[in-house]
Amino acid sequence: MNDVKDMASSTEALPGSMGASVEPHGSLASLVRPPEADGGGGSGSRAARSLAGLLLPVHGALRRFWYFWYPAARCPVPRPRAGQVGGRMGLLLQSFRRSPALHLGAFLVAMVGLGAILVPLLTPYGVDQIIPGARLQPPSLVHPFGTDALGRDMLTRVAYGAHLAAWTALLAVGISLACGLVLGSLAGYYSGWIDQLLSRGMDGWLALPGALVAVIIVARLGASLDNLILALGIMGVPAFYRMVRNTTLGARRMPYAEAAVALGATDARVMWRHVFPNILSPLVVLTTMRLGTVLLTGSSLSFIGLGAQPPAPEWGALLAAGRNHVDTAWWLALFPGLAVTATVVGLNLLGDGLRDLLDPMGARHGGWSEG
Amino acid sequence: MGYYLIRRLSGALITVLVVSFLAYVALTFAPGDAAEALIGENASADQIAALRSQMRLDLPLWQRYWEYISSALIHGDLGRSLVSGRGVGELLAERLPSTVLLALVSMAMATIVGLGVGLLAASRPGSKLDLAATAGTVLGLALPPYWVAMLLVMLFSLHLRWLPVFGSGTPAHLVLPSVTLAMPGAATVARLIRASVLEVKGSDFVRTALAKGLSPRRTLILHVLPNSLIPALTALGLNLSYLVGGAFVVETIFAWPGLGRLTVQAIFDRDVPVVMGAVLVVVPICLSVSLLVDLLHAALDPRVRHHAL
Amino acid sequence: MRAADRTVCGGTWWSMFERVAALLMMAAVVAGCATSQPTQPLSNTARPGESGGTLTRAMTAEPTSLDPQGAANSGLNLVLPYLFDTLVTRTRDGRFVGHLAESWQASADGRSIDFKLRSGVRFHDGTPLNAAAVAFTFDRFKKIGDKSPIAANIKEISRVEAVDDLTVRFSFDKPTATLWSTLAMPYAGILSPKAVEAAGDGFGSRPVGTGPFKMGEWQRGVGITLVRNPDYSWGPAEVDNKGPVKLDKLVFKVIPDANTQFSALQSGEVDVIFITEPTFLDRVKANSNLRLEPINLDSLIYLGYNCAKPPFDDVKVRQGLSHAVNKAEIVKTALGGFGIEAGTPLPPSLLGYDQSLSSFGQSYDPARVKALLSEAGFTQTSDGGWQKDGRKLSGRLLTSTRAPNDAIATVLQSQFKAVGVPVEIQQLDSAAVMKATTEGAFDLLLWRYDWNDPDALNIYLSSGRIRQTNRVFYSNAKVDALLKQAAEEMDQPKRASLYQDAQKIILAEAPWQPLYYPIEGMVLSSRVKGVKVGSLGRMLVNDVTVAGN
Lengths: 371, 309, 549
What we know:
The complex is a heterotrimer of chains A (about 375), B (about 300) and C (about 550). By secondary structure, chain A is an all-alpha fold. Chain A has helices at about 1-10, 30, 45-70, 85-100, 100-120, 155-190, 190-205, 210-220, 225-250, 255-260, 265-305, 315-325, 330-360. In chain A, about 65% of the residues lie in helices and about 0% in strands. In chain A, helix 4 crosses helix 5 and helix 10 crosses helix 11. At the A-B interface, helix 1, helix 7, helix 8, helix 11 and helix 12 of A face helix 1, helix 6, helix 7, helix 8 and helix 10 of B.
């Protein structure tokens, strides 16, 4: 991670410099290159290698995404030095060491996602099913996360809570993204009074603590998951607006954009062809970070009862209920808390890693890209 | 500089007006009004209607807002709470000192710890220390504050009996709430400081300064630190707005008599004057902090000083 | 990378960094240590021995004013009984006995009642309690007491006048049997006229009554401190110590979060809390320093139907759904056993309660559900649901965010699901629920009432109160007539039988399915001795002492 930062701050900060450890897309040469002798577990143990094996498809997907948007990033692969593991595995390990955040984050998120998908398929219990006589059971083989005060299986509830979390976070960030994108590009592209008006408004918006705004919205509309999502979405607009606006402002004044305008391109075309690709990477990073923030804020509001309604197993609500039994049934508060923390940590790390990967400079859009 | 200030202050005034109007609209469209919330269960429709006209809740929206904002800004009269009848100014004045105390202590803690951890991590990038610090900051941002509060209370108040569970009054009461609130701020500051210090130390002007023979100590103080602090300052400024008005979950858990709790309770009671009063207090505080941060930014960075001001 | 640093920066720069960083970390640690004081005793209870110490109690919501005649919120009736006394009080078994009034005499036509006051009673400001003060209190109530929960009952009193120094006459247009319940409410506490006139609007912050405690300090947002009234010598019937209380101080601390209250009790920072959710029961049992005193309230939690909205306007649908409710399961699962199954709309402590009436209601019987729904014209579909005229039978259950409503609602939902009726839960805060019910925007309602008089049936189920306190839109002329008659019937047995007749009809027509009578739990630290429980769940502290550490 630190090597990346150093490379980023050097004068030669081409996007492709990160690609030094990644193979060119579709090159057959790597496949026919004889595997280097593995120095008896050189850079890692067997465990690390099996871990890497799990991560391979993720890594592959990220690579394809990267190359699709930045075809110029392909660079020749350096020959593996002595003592290093060669081949695709070795390159993966190298990339992991360079950017552990990205891989760790993706791993955590993938684990949570896997749990969210697999557990509901495999569990014999319903999410609301009250099992008679099974009140407040500690974790066991039958109930790996224990049961709650009404006798419902906690593992199932936490897994369904992940569904709710994903739904809430994605939808809320989607709303922020859409509004911020539209408003920000308008403000950045046209400048003038639109920019002044909107920026003033957003400043004012930021001056109120976001949580208070969410409370007002939810109190007005009634406590429900949908209203919570709306409130969280509205809360997040300024962050996206600012980032899009700053980037658009800069990109619009680039020579290539000016040239396109001089040649008679319509506003839409200039925006799509010349401005938009600049927004993309910081947008991805900001979205990932925002997902984590929204998850935390959403669970805080559910904690005080403003979010999903019972019996919805939203993580914040589960934590609130678990608090009532903190001496006698510690598992009720532990597992939802771990779930929230793991997901947010994963998302933040993923965002960090993506930022290092996609947007190492960060200066173009005004620095700190977090909302 | 003068023109800049005038522009900022007039912009701030407009922002305050816009925000207060939006808040007023949002509040008064809430289902159920203060008259119903007040009388409660056992009242007849006539009683509620009578109370409503007594509270002047049956006037149109524009009129109510105009009456309110003109008396608030011109006469300094923030009205009376619809629930308790006490002056809003008095209510806010009761809560403000403890809120400010908690906010300042949290921010100080966040700054000190964040600076320390960030600088330590930046001093040995790539080492185990750096890894530990980074892991710490990642956790600090990801742990839900109410969960942390719960765990802290369990450990320090119930198990070790070192600190009180709730309330305010002594410095001991201040520790747990401010630690809970400072955690995300400290983590953010640490990350920002680390990133910007690393970035700055590799930049040309630092290299030039050292090459010119400036001692490392002076380089640190004159060049590296001022440039590194800027993003952290902005983050701290944003943090303050959260601490003053949005920390109601922590205030509820620790029974801290703060502004956030008062505001949230008033929102649920549909006590519009109190919420509006809180908005009219919190927004100018945050705007002035933002102005202060920008001025500090200018003080630290001559480029900004010449361009923006 | 590090090699590069060395050539550029020399060796000493990083140690400089480290020094600065270490300094800051040390500063943080020192600051942290300085503010935590490890060995302070945290309990509020001060001295052991003769003086009874300080009793600290947690309260969830702070009252906005301590004026008994103002708007009520949950904090108000916690504090009022210690500052003000009432003319009559209700004992725990439901009888009305005199407190400030020694005796009373009704006139022949029932239109006026003379109360004879106890002599020698003084207000906290030294002025004597006399008939003029009582008359002043109720005149003031009629003038400014619109926001009070008992405002409607006060309006039924047409005149209050002082006959002589210690005799007060209450006059009415028509006889009212609810007078004693009204006078026993803490809102009907007697105020000192001198103090009211002196304080004006500020009386709510400086209340003066005849109670066993005087007003001490009120730190807004933090707590209220009451101090002993040394001149007190007129304790109520149920306590042993009729003189001044043994406690020095009674402190109410504002702690809005239930968990924090419990933690504070465990750590010794408060001595008594009241729990309404059963979720804490396990923790109380696990802690040997705490003991639980269950308190039965004059309350009922019920499931109501919107009788104006199809298909719930059909009595067969209501009866059918009511048969699907398993009250034993609710009490066991959602309440942990902390409640009494209810078969009638009146709780056991009120006049007119009759256990045998529950046979008129709907007990748990899933077979009857099918039969009744079929009679109502519904047919069962292949997935177990019910439909009629193409419309599926389902409903929205509205309730407030107050615990343990979510647990009860969840259990109800699963019980209805078991008979094929999907129910969606909607939790709003109380004000929004009340608004929604007046507009009829619900199908099922999980709600409660707390009232100390069987006139509650009139308040909550008579057609005259539809869109106000009758939230279920129930209307039955015969019930209205019975309840009106009972409100004016002064003969107790006759009154009881009128309420029983009304309950028979109500239970048969099922606008409500009574669920349970709540039990409130008073959890005390073992240091507290001598607590007695009065009616309305009031904690009587006249005999209490709190042992110091």
